Amino acid sequence: MELESPMGKTAPLMLVDDDPDLLRLLTLRLNASGYRILAVESAEAALAQLAISLPALVITDVRLPGMDGLALFAEIRSRYPALPVILLTAHGTIPDAVDATTQGAFAYLTKPFDGHVLLDKVAQALSLAAPAPLSPDQSWRADILSRSQRVAELLAEARLVAASDASILIRGDSGTGKELLARAIHRASARAEQPFIAVNCGAIPEQLLESELFGHVKGAFTGAVEHREGLFQAAHGGTLFLDEIGDMPLPLQVKLLRVLQEKTVRQVGANQAGEVDVRIISATHRDLEAAMREGQFREDLYYRLNVVTLHLPALEERREDIALLANHFLKTIAAKYPKRLTGFAPDALEILSLAHWPGNVRQLYNVVEQVCALSTAPLIPASLVQRALRTPTLDLLRYAEAKQKFERDYLIRLLKLTDGNVSDAARLADRNRTEFYRLLQKNGLDPRRFRGGEEAVVAGRQEERL
């Protein structure tokens, strides 16, 4: 539920308490101050609501039936680390509440508490959690299209960390949009008017990458016929995005670490170093922890780069975005072709939404571009999507159909395993013989067909006569 704060900013508040009278009292008090409230009576209900939409603040009692308020806080801290939490506690749970504040809870109030104190704490929490006023609108994230709750949480964290100069490590599979997120963070930062420079550390040969990053002086090596500025100097005052940092050779990792520590860059062949002011955002699809264990990535550099980690979900973890992205790509790509393309047929969108996407958003874009190029009708048919996905026999089953198919296949495997012995098959399935026979009859399976020898042949001939 979207709520308006007294300052006119979006500020939904969630109250969690199993005491309906206290919920009513707190709701009235906060309503009177301009806040609108979503009240729930259990931690479980709170988590369910959080999965749908995030409030700006959670106020929860510590003592709750089932999962208590401290466990709820731990879940919120794990899933939504940027979401502030205020704990309401009785005298007996004060030590626990104090401990929770050391772990990240915004504050705790002891019952009975002063209403003015509560309002002050709420205002403080909202002011600290509010996005930095550097980009008052949503233009900073305009290139990231999503209706996914996971992406919304990620962007909330990205907006918070953008206000600092902390180094950020973006993790995610190839094709998830790591550079798009890095650019969005840059636009939301105080460096937005300065350069954003991106370099793929795995796409440039090792002997050239050092010169690309740090620059070189004339005569530094064969072919260095003139002085050249590096990407660090080019990004001075702005942001340098180091994509696929896990592919950077070890010798260059040492030199990069020195730059980050000393904030100076010495060009290849130069005797003097120059100061640089650059915010570093790096990205990788590799397991850097495993690379460190194998001696392929320096631990000291890892901790320099990994001040804040942001995880980009794979496309299959945000399937609600597939149709949105596909239609957006269609609209963009269609402008390149001299033909009218209006959208996808419903079954084509269904295939896209249920497909496997190892290449993530980049693969989806390529699929849409292919079907746009090949389509002869305004509406993209399912057959073209299947062709682009190389799944011409893709079988989309409803839940009931999929369940029945699984059940039939399972029974067939059991009968094959037991040579058609119903007693053994029923025992493996943990069902009695009568129930198992009903399952076989429901799926049109005759156990005699799975027995070897003359009995199976006779059974087959009898079935053919019917």
Automatic annotation (TrEMBL):
Annotated Sigma-54 factor interaction domain ranges read 144-373
> SMART domains from the xrefs?
AAA, REC
Q: Which residues carry this modification: 4-aspartylphosphate?
A: D61
Q: Which SUPFAM superfamilies match?
A: CheY-like, Homeodomain-like, P-loop containing nucleoside triphosphate hydrolases
CDD domains membership: AAA
Give start and end of each Response regulatory domain: 12-126
Instruction: Give one GO biological process term.
Output: regulation of DNA-templated transcription
GO molecular-function terms, A-Z: ATP binding; DNA binding
Key words, A-Z: ATP-binding, DNA-binding, Nucleotide-binding, Phosphoprotein, Transcription, Transcription regulation
Per the UniProt entry, the signal peptide is none
- PANTHER family linked: TRANSCRIPTIONAL REGULATORY PROTEIN (PTHR32071), TRANSCRIPTIONAL REGULATORY PROTEIN GLRR (PTHR32071:SF116)
Q: What is this protein called?
A: Two component transcription regulator protein
Native source organism of the sequence: Herbaspirillum seropedicae (strain SmR1)
Q: What is the lineage of its organism?
A: Bacteria, Pseudomonadati, Pseudomonadota, Betaproteobacteria, Burkholderiales
